[in-house]
C-alpha cells in the first residue's frame, strides 16, 4: 500500500502543480487531486497537501516536496 498524497485543485493553481508533477514521478506514491479539501484558509495562505490525511505545507513547490518526503520518513506506514 502506497502513501496517498492529496492535492486541492485550487492550491495547484497557486504553485502546487509543480510539486504534484514531481511527486507523480515516484511510483511508490499515490497522487490524487480533488476539487476541494476543505482547508480553504490554509489553501489561501500557503502550498499544502494531505499526506495520509495529515496536512503538510511548504513555502515553495520544492519545499513542499521536501516536507512531504520528510513527513513520510518520520511517519512510516508500517
UniProtKB/TrEMBL annotation:
InterPro entries: DUF1450, UPF0349. The lineage of its organism: Bacteria, Bacillati, Bacillota, Bacilli, Bacillales. This is UPF0349 protein D4T97_004050. Pfam families: DUF1450. Belongs to the UPF0349 family.
